Amino acid sequence: MNWLSELLRRLWMLMRRQQFDADLEEEMRLHLELREQEQTRAGLTPADARDAALRRFGNTTLLKEESYMAWGWEWLESFFQDIAYGSRAMLRSPALTIVALLSLALGIGANTAIFSLLDAVMLRFLPVKDPAQLVLLGKGNTSGITDDFARTQLYSYPFYRQMRGENQVFSDSAAIFSMTNEVHGFVEGRTESEPMNVQLVSGTYFSTLGVRAMVGRTLNDRDDDSEGDHPVAVISYDWWNRSLARDPNILNRTLKLGARTYNIVGVAPREFFGTKVGESPDMWVPLSMVKEVPPNFGGYKDNFSESLLIMARLKPGISISAATSNVNLLFRQILLGFPDAKLSQENLQKLDRTTVPLTPMATGLSSLRRQFSEPLQILMAVVALVLLIACANVANLLLARSTARARELAVRQALGARRTRIIRQLITESLLLALAGGTLGVALASVANRLLLRMVSGGLDPIPLDVSIDPRLLLFTLAVTIATALIFGTVPAFRATRLVLTDTLKAGRGAHSASGKNPLAKALVISQVALSLVLMVGAGLFLRSLVNLNNVDTGFNKENVLRLEIDSSSAGYTPGEPREVALDQQIEERVSTLPNVKAASFSAFTFHEGSWNSKVVVPGINIDEDINVKHNVVGAGYFATMQIPLLAGRNFSPSDASTSQTVAIISEHTAKVLFPLLDPIGRHYYLGDNKPEDEVTVIGVAKDVKFDDLAEEPVNLDYIPYTQHPWDFGDFEVRYTGDFASVAAAVQQTIHSIDRNLPITRVTTLDEQVARSITNQRLVAQLSAFFGLLAVFLSCIGIYGVMSYVVTRRTNEIGIRMALGAGRSNMRWMVLREMLILISIGVAIGVPVTLAGDRLVSNMLFGLRPTDPVTLVSATVILLIVAAIAGYLPARRASLVEPMVALRYE
Amino acid sequence: MHRDEIPPGTLYLLILKTLARVGEMHGYEIADSIQRISDDVLQVEEGSLYPALQRMLIKGWVKAKWGTTAGNRRARYYQLTAAGRKQLETELSQFERVIGAITRVIRTA
Prior knowledge:
The complex is a heterodimer.
Chain A: H1 2-15, H2 17-41, H3 46-57, H4 60-70, H5 74-92, H6 94-123, E1 134-137, H7 157-166, E2 170-177, E3 181-187, E4 194-201, H8 205-209, E5 215-216, E6 232-235, H9 237-244, E7 254-257, E8 260-267, E9 283-286, E10 308-314, H10 320-337, H11 345-353, E11 358-360, H12 367-404, H13 406-414, H14 419-457, H15 471-497, H16 501-506, H17 519-550, E12 561-566, H18 578-592, E13 597-603, E14 612-617, E15 628-634, H19 638-642, E16 646-649, E17 663-667, H20 668-674, E18 684-687, E19 695-702, E20 717-721, E21 731-736, H21 740-754, E22 760-765, H22 766-772, H23 775-809, H24 811-819, H25 824-854, H26 869-895, H27 899-904
Parallel strand pairs in A: 4-9, 6-8, 15-20, 17-19
Antiparallel strand pairs in A: 1-10, 1-11, 2-10, 3-4, 3-7, 5-8, 6-9, 7-8, 12-21, 12-22, 13-21, 14-15, 14-18, 16-19, 17-20, 18-19
Chain B: E1 4-5, H1 11-22, E2 24-26, H2 27-37, E3 42-43, H3 49-59, E4 62-68, E5 74-80, H4 82-107
Helix pairs in contact in B: 1-2, 1-4
């Protein structure tokens, strides 16, 4: 308590500084006068009495200062003095200040913007209770439905139930459907359907996370205890706001998803976006409704329909390793205990090899993380380098200024200022500059990160990520800013105060023999050039990769194809029923006959949309049993629409109906793998196990296409007609000529004329679809190009600054040389040569650094090696040219020096 | 007249003791009193009293309030606090221990 009351007294004193001075003054005056009176009484003359009193008292100024310093606030006062002085100094040289501020703002702003994205995607904890206690079974890096034995990523609902009931290590656990259901549902009373992202979860989802409803209640275990009986939904705050205008009467409203009507029982808290970063469901519905919510996945009671992620909260004090061993024990027991488990030799061996890893889930799940962690890390490194270059720039500017201030500093040191005090002042000034730059940077970042988010989202609706400026981000920026100030401020400060006083005082405006030789400034320029080269080459590599990717032959013609998605399950169609097949055929037929439309077809996938794959078996041919083939379910018009050439055999025809022989068209590559050295036409294979109903006959071979991404090698791919293998379609493609917008309108109108309730989404071109698959590479290429140019620009400012400074310092020397007959071009060359030496050293250092650094990004490159000589040479040449221009201006000024003026100048 | 500097570190003790004896005093009175009672042997550099008093204010050993002198002048009067009294005891016993020890060393022939 003592220190607290002491602190309060100190603070109290700080408030009344003036009173303090006046009091002390008065007290001391009284003392002196009383002593003077006493001395006078003792017989001294008034003057002597006064002298004696003063002598006995001591140095009043010093004593006052000592009294004040006892309170421990003088640092604060000198800090404010430094700030005031620093601001005045900054305002005195506005050009320098503006350049420094801009450099810093760009550097710090870029760092803040990239970090905000990195933080949102990779680092931030879920807004739930004790996120560090949450774990996920498996690694969470997959989604979909499988029926493979002993999978450790996705689990069935019965498995989840048993795991939850029998484990001893979790305080609670919950299951999450691995995909969100994209439904078109109706808010009760409305006639237009609207898109709703539904996340199916177990009833324990919210209680495991420790999230409470903002309005009403969350889901509970009773909502999940019998299949199909609990049509309830918890809606997100965002959707409540967006679609229902925050209706306070929300708990009395209902929703229609598919055939069922759901009661809204609660609203989730505003900050809660679910458990997947970058996806924010509009509502959460209990898994007991899994068969009712379009597209009606089902599998609630199926022991081996594995489509769920399982997350759990560790009991306090239980370590991950203890939990892991308990979970693995149960994993075996539960799987072996299922009566319908296929306990073949192969499956048992597989089970023996399998362990379930537990993954900490504090930061949530995310597919974005896998996609963007590498590009974001690369960009973070890039912007950190840009900031270093900016720091070097500012350090250079400060160095130049502190040299100009050498006399001022020398005078102050001569008058008794301690060196540490002056260093502190200079660093305070740097801090001030950095803070101003940082503030500008934050302003810049708040605009830039929205732009970034749009780039990352690749032209779709922005990914729901919170990249706004929050306290956490500001803390990061503050840390960066202070680090920046220390980096660029310390060296000039120490240098500026390391003086031979008498020399500096004598030398006037510095004709002293330093003569522009400033190794530190030159070292800074060299490092700027080296870093710029690294960034330029990096940018060059990324740009050329992007060009290479854009020139990849996809195997189909991506131009002039419209694609859209139709959500027929939300409109009440069930895959496989004749009504749906008839609908699809009718749409294909009607759209194909539209003007400007050449062909149209449904397909399960086009490009970069995931896949359905399975192993296939070829009877009588001895090939690897585990061969995996991706399947695309398509209409007969698919090959014409995509312009994929058939190399052999025939296309699907109306005669390939559900009742006739099942057929397939395989890709070139698949033909080579399945039927090496044989004519594939007319041969048979089985999709999955060799059950008769899965047998297909090959009727054609199509040219290889890219299926998932542009960089992939040819994949095993076959095509199956939807007349024989019902599919709940997403994609509809139309090859058109002429104007996209009018064709798109006509196509949608035609679809709605067949069934006006069919929700149509994501109307775009195939070209864009392909472009979206390289969002990553485009992001990195564009941003690294931008930052590379920024780096070069900053370095040019650095070069210009240093060379101008050199010319100014050598004006006298130049004057003498010219007076002695040196020509103007000689002078120009003298300065240019000095600069070229600097740049060459920078390049010489930069090349090996670049070669070492670019190895780290080889994953992100396509079609060229990290040591690509063309990129290296062209980056070097560009850098040389730009730098030469920056250096030419001061060189020209050197050549314009008038000898007489220069000499008289001293 | 020869005057001795006070031993280092004893200034607080002298001020605390003086205030304890008299109760309330201003700076000049404290300095004067120390000198008179020590028969002018102990000389405080009078000004140094004031930084010392500030430090004692921070520590909470003394408190100050403004009042008027006999000559009707405004003056700051200092007064011991409870903490100050405790501090005085601590300093006194410490001082006696040190002096006692020094005396024993000197007396031992």
